[in-house]
Design a protein that fits this description.
The structure is a homodimer of 758-residue chains.
Chain A lengths: L5 E2 L3 E4 L7 H7 L2 E2 L3 E3 L15 E3 L3 E5 L12 E5 L8 E5 L2 E2 L6 E10 L4 E9 L5 E10 L6 E10 L4 E10 L14 E9 L2 E8 L5 E12 L2 E2 L5 E5 L2 E10 L5 E11 L8 H15 L1 H19 L1 E4 L2 H17 L26 H13 L2 H13 L1 H10 L23 H4 L4 H17 L2 H22 L1 E3 L4 E3 L17 H21 L10 H10 L36 H4 L2 H6 L8 H7 L6 H11 L10 H11 L3 H12 L16 H15 L3 E3 L2 E4 L9 E8 L2 E7 L2 E6 L5 E5 L2 E5 L4 E5 L2
Chain lengths: 758, 758
């Protein structure tokens, strides 16, 4: 555990500067607003190790992925999240010496990310090689109110001198990705214009032709007085700046306020994109820093009102859960039907593409309970909009008659992942998309969505499963060969229990939905229902004889059975130390697989089955996916193993903050952050929304005094507080009934009740 | 079947020019001499579709193979065979119009590759856009006598005019590979010098720093008279030429004789490489075309003396077998310990790396019988020299104590393939290397090689197997999980019968060798022998209950059982029409897998077992590897299915000539050509060299009158002719005994006997 940064309930704080931690800090202190975002790179020059990252939602480059050995059916491209125009930059020179934290002497350094307001602040004192000492305070934010706006307030105070200081605020689109095959440049210059205290750079992605425009304006202040300046301007390909010198008096504070707008053809027409950036930045400039900041803070208040989780008695857990919620909402706001939730959000460039099954398996449960239903509906609709492409995708793999296989990774509905064992075989993702529809109905009763859109998705997915099983003469049952389960540490296995079970459920649920809706244009073809019923009836589900253990796959018991705690510490994580074949042969499980199924379909299993499978698989699980510990934590809570639930919770909640997997430098694990929230709400509080209603079976870790959160259920907001007793308040406009410890309790509008804790 | 070219016993002939066939023809008419070689590109300019290829043995570029999803243990690079300096080029301009077969009117065209002498000839008449008609005759060869020399004789006769013609012989190193990720250039310029009727270009490969030098000299003749010319010279980066104009008289013939030397740091020191090229080309120039050509022809006569197979009564089969033998010897001569046999030889750039298990499984059996034992020994020694790297390679995958895993693909002993299911899992290649040693001893009795070198290789390989098995609690036997067999249409399977069987044999054979040699420094550690014996005793070999069928892998019988002839024609080859997962799930077999084991260890199985397995697997085999049909052909002959043996033989022998798999444009399947020869000698003639001696059980296809070939057995050359009767002649210097139809027959020195055909 690295404990990288200070612990505070609402803030991330660094009290000193460690260049070795800079890339990690850049990830952790990232800010964004659902539309664009960036790593916590410095405004001034920095010659130390850094991963520069400024990202615009939905903008990508279809990178070539030619490998020596192409497989038929591989996608044409791998979508790359692109490092875009750097808009934070302000070069500073003090009497001819460049300000650069890598080369000057640092007297003090403070960095803070206030999660309540998504405000990134730095305050530092440095002595330059010419012995000049200054203090710098920089504050910046990406507006949550106007999601195309950001601003920086950058102040310098000369401490031991008066003298000339030069300021060069700039926009620089001459950027590349750290992750590129041959140092390719992914941007083509569009236009650049510069004026007095303003500039704009627009760039177009190669091949995909996304146009993005980045505009800036700025003002300069001595203490609180606006200073008139006459900067020199410079404009080059993909670059503009303003340059001016000013005589700074010792003890006075000089502030540059830089306003930025970032627009793209995701939201604007080709014709308007540049103009929109100029208009937006002009409006922001005229409104002023304080006014736009106030709007921004207000927007965040609205989010926290629903989404906050308060934990009393455990500052570290409190900080961690807010960190997770904070980054989820920085990444996705539900405002834009074209966007989804990239695994790294706006914090890094790793993982091409924006949409994984993470969205359905982890993020939708989070947004279903913390945001109005429109947000989750937007995410479901995203998949509906891509149904045609999913059908095309399945057709490429030889499936027919409208069978749909959603891609593993996508930007626009097209598959953009190319490892056969994932792309073609990790097909359980299709089931997660169906399950999300089911979950959405349970939460919202929005059957209209299903009738209009969801059923088409369900039927496409079910058709895929019906074709994907084959009859085994040897087993006299339907089998599913050659799949990869959620445990990606087994590939191309036969009869992954989770996938078979989920597929069976999808077929059953789709038939139920079609029957229930009794739509005037039925989707199922003649005989299709009977065919599916026959398959459902004869699906093979591997099980260890004479036990409750569902077998992860057919040949699981041929492996050498070991527990993860028998692994030498210096061989973990195994994915950084073992070759792939060794991992595949081993019994070690990357993330919940059988247990993912036990979690999703909990009501269908006895407590003994849940316990036995948990006790069989948990010790074999190495949790090398960020998506893993939360599911285990929830199940541990379910079977009453409070200590283990808490231990696993800590692992998920501080995964990035403490950099467990030593990869935070590359960016944060945004989607798995939803799992942390699930560990509290579904794990600790034992909240379940089932077809029969809302249940809760709360426990509380001994380390905590109380925890409080809000959830939406059937569009009604509830506030739930669990400590020495349970307090529930119905804040909605309808009465509501829920089960606490299997006891049905009614809440009138506005009613608050206190229930005994068990 | 395309029947691309004319059928002739010794020649490949094209009688007309079809631009659509040009890339196929460039592959098929390729020439080489074991050291360098080239596709049959044209000397003069050609603006039509063409794959330019000039290759220098052993010279490669370690291409980056960054893919989105790296696996721990993947190699750093993928070795790329490089298109090198073009040395054939001669630009021609007739009164200002460029000679280019893509743009002029072709009156007649003849192309011939004489396989007896490895001579490529073209003769054509064309009319240019200015109505000038010429006849061109070009002859070229890569000397088999001096393997750094080549020469071209290029003659022009003006047919309907007298006029000015310009000649520009050149060397051009500004070349790229057709197969590159981002059009990278793999060469760096070294030096270029040009002089009167001479020039040299040297280039260095990026990263690997191989230096190659290509030098030219030339002379110009009117009919048989040397003409004095004074060319202009040009030298640019990686390019040199000489340019001269001459007045050509109608009806006279003008000839440019271009001599070339190609050297590299594979054979020369860095210091000498360029000088060697200059010296070699000067010697060749002084000796003259006819003299160096005569030496070249003599060298080929020597090869054919041993290697030729004569088939009477079937011109097509005759041409085909010579085509295969010819290309094998163009690719590998056994002269250089640093070289091996690339799957495409000098005919294309596909497949990085030079050495595959093809060498051991196919080429060594061919060279063992057609060349003195030194050639096969060189190939074995190549692997011995790379043993350290094989041990390193195994260590990377977690194996220890000197376990060796030879790479799937290599240039210098390092793995350079990066598909996990192949690189890490297609490990049966290790067994093929052990088997080659066994086979070598059976043919040569050279136990000295084994005592000095081979045993180290065997022990390293056996150690790998001992560690690769694991004990299955479920089966109470040793199992091998996660492998890919020779049938690459199944990946990551458990208990591939072939691999398990081969591994068991390797362990057993290595123990036998160590026992037999009883070396004063034993290689086995204390307890190692007992450990291996225990494993050998308990290896699981999957079998279909109550039958003779050895199961390809554990779950084979869960597949939908179908025969290849049930596949729609438009879905074949399936690897061009089906996605990879579909192929993997299907029952279809790419190439001999269980049958490869039945073939290798034939003596260990009953005729019923051989028949039953053949009849079970042959119909499921799609033969989409060039390595497949020959093994099936041999087994078909073995079980007496003469018709099928012949059909399968045809498929292997004319695979490239008739472009069955529609990929000849990319180059020829050099290594599988050895399989064709095996189909005749092991299949038709039923020749086996076992521990007990030489056996033969000949059959003859009804389509043939007779066939005759030579083999080496214990260093003794034998000539065997099979027709209406069997004629065997001992041409060696020792008496020899062999079994014909299980009848032991003795041959004194020089003795020739006639035996009745059954």
């Amino acid at each position: 555990m690295l404990n990288l940064f200070e612990i505070d309930e609402w803030k991330l704080i660094e009290n000193s500067f460690d260049p070795a931690k800079q890339e990690q800090a850049e990830s952790i202190f990232s800010i964004g607003n659902g539309s664009f975002g960036q790593r916590a790179n410095f405004e001034e020059a920095y010659s130390g190790k850094s991963l520069q990252g400024s990202y615009v939602g939905g903008v990508y480059y279809p990178d070539k992925t030619r490998v020596g050995w192409w497989k038929n059916g591989y996608p044409e491209y791998f979508a790359k999240v692109l490092n875009a125009t750097n808009w934070i930059g302000i070069f500073i020179e003090i009497d001819g010496v460049k300000l650069d934290l890598a080369t000057c002497q640092i007297k003090s350094f403070y960095r803070e990310l206030d999660m309540k307001t998504s405000t990134l602040t730095r305050k530092f004192r440095v002595q330059l090689s010419n012995n000049k000492e200054i203090e710098v305070v920089s504050v910046r934010f990406c507006s949550m109110h106007n999601q195309e706006i950001a601003a920086i307030r950058y102040s310098i105070t000369p401490l031991n001198f008066s003298g000339n200081v030069s300021f060069t605020p700039y926009l620089d689109g001459n950027v590349t990705n750290a992750d590129s095959n041959y140092d390719e440049v992914f941007w083509e210059a569009d236009a650049h214009r510069v004026g007095d205290r303003k500039g704009v750079v627009s760039a177009r992605t190669k091949k995909t032709n996304f146009l993005t425009a980045t505009a800036m304006r700025f003002s300069f202040w001595e203490n609180d007085q606006l200073v008139e300046i006459h900067p020199n301007t410079k404009a080059e390909t993909l670059y503009v700046d303003n340059h001016f010198e000013h005589f700074l008096k010792q003890g006075s504070t000089y502030t540059l306020k830089k306003y930025v707008a970032v627009t793209s053809t995701i939201n604007h027409s080709e014709f308007n994109t540049v103009a929109a950036a100029i208009n937006e930045v002009t409006d922001a400039y005229r409104a002023g820093f304080d006014a736009i900041y106030a709007d921004h803070v207000k927007a965040w208040d609205e989010i926290w009102k629903n989404a906050d989780v308060k934990i009393e008695g455990d500052k570290s857990a409190q900080q961690a859960i807010r960190f997770n919620i904070f980054h989820l909402y920085q990444t996705y706001t539900g405002n834009n039907a074209k966007l989804n939730i990239g695994p790294k959000g706006f914090t890094g460039e790793k993982y091409g593409g924006a949409t994984y099954w993470d969205t359905e398996a982890y993020c939708i449960p989070f947004f279903l309970k913390t945001a109005p239903q429109a947000v989750s509906r937007q995410l479901l609709k995203y998949r509906y909009n891509q149904l045609d492409k999913a059908i095309e995708n399945a057709a490429k793999l030889g499936f027919k008659d409208g069978a749909a296989l959603y891609p593993m990774v996508t930007m626009n509905g097209e598959e953009c992942h190319n490892e056969w064992e994932i792309t073609f075989e990790e097909i359980h993702r299709n089931g997660a998309i169906a399950f999300a529809i089911y979950n959405y109905i349970r939460h919202t009763d929005d059957w209209e969505y299903v009738a209009d859109f969801g059923r088409h998705v369900l039927v496409g997915i079910a058709r895929f499963w019906a074709q994907r099983f084959n009859w085994s003469g040897a087993k006299q049952q339907f089998v599913m060969l050659g799949v990869t389960g959620p445990n990606e540490y087994e590939n191309n296995v036969n009869n992954n229990w989770y996938t078979n079970y989920l597929a069976k459920w999808c077929l059953t649920f789709t038939l139920e939905v079609e029957e229930k809706l009794n739509h005037k244009s039925p989707l199922l073809r003649k005989g299709e229902r009977e065919e599916w019923l026959n398959i459902i009836d004869k699906i093979y589900l591997p099980k260890l004889e004479n036990t409750n253990i569902f077998l992860q796959q057919d040949n699981f018991m041929d492996k050498v059975l070991m527990n993860a705690d028998e692994l030498p510490e210096n061989e973990r994580p195994i994915n950084q130390h073992w070759s792939w074949d060794r991992i595949l042969r081993s019994v070690f499980i990357k993330q919940a697989d059988v247990l993912q199924g036990v979690y999703l379909f909990e009501e269908q299993f006895s407590m003994d089955e849940i316990k036995d499978n948990f006790n069989f698989y948990e010790p074999k699980t190495v949790h090398e996916s960020s998506l893993s510990p939360c599911i285990h934590s929830i199940l541990a809570a379910k079977i009453g193993d409070k200590e283990r639930a808490y231990k696993l919770y800590l692992r998920t909640s501080r995964l990035d903050l403490d950099d467990y997997n030593r990869e935070v430098a590359e960016g944060l694990h945004i989607t798995s952050m939803a799992g942390t929230w699930m560990s509290i709400v579904e794990g600790m509080a034992g909240i379940r929304v089932t077809e029969s209603g809302l249940e809760m079976n709360p426990i509380i870790p001994t380390q905590w005094k109380s925890y409080t959160f809000n959830i939406f259920y059937k569009n009604q907001p509830l506030t739930i507080s669990i400590g020495s007793e349970i307090t529930i308040e119905n804040k909605g406009d309808k009465a509501i009934t829920l089960d606490v410890y299997k006891q049905s309790i009614n809440f009138n509008i506005g009613e608050k009740k206190v229930i005994e804790m068990r």
